[in-house]
Design brief:
Elements: E1 15-24, E2 30-33, H1 42-56, E3 62-64, E4 72-78, E5 87-92, E6 95-100, H2 103-120, E7 123-131, E8 137-143, H3 152-164, E9 169-174, H4 185-188, H5 196-207, E10 212-217, H6 224-227, E11 242-243, E12 259-260, H7 270-283, E13 291-293, H8 308-314, H9 316-333, E14 337-341, E15 360-364, H10 372-381, E16 386-389, H11 402-418, E17 423-428, H12 442-453, H13 463-471, H14 479-486, H15 503-509, H16 516-519, H17 523-539, H18 550-578, H19 585-610, H20 616-619, H21 621-642
Parallel strand pairs: 2-3, 2-4, 4-6, 8-9, 8-17, 9-10, 13-14, 14-15, 15-16, 16-17
Antiparallel strand pairs: 1-7, 5-6, 5-7, 11-12
Length: about 650
């Protein structure tokens, strides 16, 4: 084999040099741990043992030390001077050698060998791979707070995928009560949260795969789950809630404005720090990580309520920084290094140099045009270590926003590396019901992980190919491209910019009598969108998945497409409501009512296959409201027809 591009490796390594010939793995060979560091690479060797059994049905023994009586098929060897996480693979005529200076490097070598074995079986091409990561921290953050709390087995499956993709950090985003705080059982008693004991299991499962489970709990804004409760409401900046400023929401979706429940702490109430301290003491002991992401993003009402006078005199930025410093003291006392979302402090660049020493800024943004270059430069110039945190673009999309996702992840990687980011965190959110199914997020997981490992070599990573072969095991080799295409339906909408959203998702969340969004879409655009989504639906029949959850994946993709098709017909219904011709309105309303019942029935069933029951009622609440509006409209039309 001479064409290097035929090697299907993701992440793509730094360098791959192919030579002539093949090495055929003997049935009687051994996996040899060659030197004094053998115990450290034992997890990698055992992983390789499992891989060989699964891929080529070989059961090779482990052998520690080099001796003439043992014929090595694979050898793990130590090489001083290689960076942490780096590895080399040498496949020659006499065997395969994996070289590293760290246990995780050996583990990553085993992961690359897995892909080679899946592709070539027992006869591997002779080659040399030299590889190391661009970003020391390569993470995935899952939103477990917006209704959808995955079952343990779902999380284990995601961790296995992360391991294959060489990711080394997992964060489970917490706001409200997706975690069972032992000091506050009343907060979560009606939910199905993750418990401390389950965190212990997850933490151990991650560590076995060289993944760090990092605690993540919002601590400033996004505290609605606590501040709307009577016992904590007085700790809010504006206890009664507030109207979001006009520039912060889409007026087509919220023509009468957007009311927000209290979500930001009153920074000057000492009870707030006491509450946070107790929450931290409930959460942090279950994690072995030295890091802690405290959030502190989107503090919308800061300085507008109980601290207005102070904000007017000292400045909103200074007020934010002062409270951030207090939180950092809580974190430092508990022996952790603090991470925080950087969106507020970046609005006050003159204050960035005053951030506490040792703090890590998390520079996030989810649009293709997010200014990662300019923002990261500000942190770099101030000497503040930072991550770049793009997203999968799955939330508020129903089935994804592929082109935005690709460019957002790419921009974060390019500019993050250029300006010295110490980490790359792929975020996967669940705003407004977490309607997207898990497979919708996989393309973002895969492409983001590839870029986090090696930016330059993975800008054009074969995401579809990896999804086909390594995730879904699709004999038709088509699901990868189908997922990418499914995530681009939004390009057939009106063309207006809808940050972190699609118009089909917005239509499902809007009131039935709000026709503003529907009026932005022409009949031709709806026809083109319908043709596009029907074409993708037809392609589902061609898939030949052999992954463990194959049937579930097909049902989830079908349900996601159903969401889009229902929203499309809802658009037509709203256009009839706004127009003069209502001749077919009654029939359309009845059809939508029945279709929504079917959609909801399927969605509820699918939810419980991967996720805990708690949160489902909240997830479907907007759809249930829409059903009520359909029913009321149908009754009104029937009554009018009877007169």
């Amino acid at each position: 084999m001479s064409d290097i591009h035929k090697l299907q490796l993701l992440p793509r390594p730094k360098t791959v040099t192919l030579t002539q010939g093949q090495y055929h793995i003997p049935a009687k060979g051994a996996i040899v741990l060659a030197d004094e560091t053998s115990q450290a690479v034992l997890p990698a060797a055992r992983r390789l043992q499992r891989i060989l059994t699964q891929t080529v049905q070989l059961n090779l023994p482990l052998s520690i030390g080099v001796r003439p009586a043992v014929a090595p098929a694979f050898t793990f060897s130590y090489k001083a001077g290689l960076p942490a996480g780096a590895y080399e693979i040498h496949i020659g005529g006499q065997g395969i050698t994996a070289v590293s200076s760290s246990p995780e490097g050996a583990y990553y070598a085993a992961g690359t060998l897995k892909q080679l074995l899946e592709q070539y079986g027992r006869s591997l091409p002779q080659l040399v791979i030299c590889d190391e990561p661009d970003f020391a921290a390569r993470g995935l953050m899952l939103d477990i707070s917006r209704n959808k709390i995955p079952k343990l087995e779902t999380l284990y499956g995601i961790i296995e995928l992360m391991s294959d993709l060489k990711l080394n950090q997992l964060q489970l985003y917490i706001e409200g009560a997706p975690f069972a705080y032992e000091s506050f059982p009343q907060v979560w008693e009606l939910e199905t949260p993750i418990t401390g004991e389950e965190i212990l299991l997850l933490d151990a499962y991650c560590r076995e795969r060289y993944i760090e489970l990092v605690p993540n709990q919002n601590s400033f804004g996004h505290m609605e789950g606590w501040l709307t409760r009577p016992e904590f409401n007085h700790l809010a900046e504006i206890p009664a809630g507030f109207m979001l400023p006009d520039h912060m929401y889409d007026s087509d979706l919220y023509p009468e404005g957007l009311f927000m429940h209290p979500g930001t702490f009153n920074t000057e109430d000492p009870e707030v720090l006491e509450l946070l301290g107790t929450m931290y003491d409930d959460l942090l002991p279950y994690f072995t990580s030295d890091l802690f992401n405290v959030g502190c993003d989107e503090t919308y009402e800061l300085g507008l309520g109980q601290t207005k006078a102070l904000a007017d005199s000292a400045g909103k930025g200074a007020l934010y920084l002062s409270f951030l410093q207090k939180i950092q003291a809580l974190v430092q006392t508990r022996g952790k290094t603090m991470q925080f979302w950087g969106d507020i402090i970046i609005q006050h660049p003159e204050l960035i140099p005053q951030l506490p020493e040792g703090i890590i800024a998390m520079e996030w943004g989810y649009s293709a045009a997010h200014p990662f270059e300019a923002d990261t430069l500000k942190f770099r110039e101030a000497g503040i270590p930072f991550y770049v945190c793009p997203g999968t673009s799955s939330w508020n999309s129903l089935t994804g926003r592929t082109d935005n996702m690709l460019e957002n992840l790419r921009s974060a990687a390019v500019h993050g590396k250029q300006n010295g980011a110490i980490g790359y965190l792929i975020t996967d959110w669940g705003d407004f019901g977490h309607w997207q199914h898990l497979p919708v997020s996989y393309p973002g997981f895969v492409y983001g992980a590839a870029l986090a490992w090696n930016v330059e070599e993975n800008l054009e990573a074969d995401v579809a190919g990896y999804l086909n072969t390594s995730v879904f095991h699709d004999r038709s080799e088509t699901i990868g491209q189908l997922l990418l295409d499914l995530g681009n339906y939004y390009k057939f909408e009106s063309g207006m910019i809808r940050p972190n959203d699609t118009e089909m998702s917005m239509l499902l969340r809007s009131s039935l009598d709000n026709v503003l969004l529907a009026e932005k879409l022409s009949a031709q655009q709806l026809q083109q969108l319908e043709h596009y989504i029907n074409g993708i639906e037809a392609r589902l029949d061609d898939l030949a998945l052999e992954c463990r959850d194959a049937g579930l994946v097909l049902e989830e993709l079908g349900n996601g497409i159903h969401f889009v098709k229902h929203a499309l017909q809802l658009t037509r219904l709203k256009q009839q409501l706004a127009g003069a011709d209502r001749s077919s309105l009654a029939a359309l309303v009845q059809a939508q009512l029945h279709d929504l019942d079917v959609l909801l029935h399927q969605y509820r069933q699918l939810w419980t296959r991967r996720n805990r029951l708690g949160g489902l009622t909240q997830s479907v609440s907007r759809l249930v409201r829409l059903r009520g509006e359909y029913a009321a409209l149908a009754a009104g039309l029937a009554e009018a027809a009877a007169e």
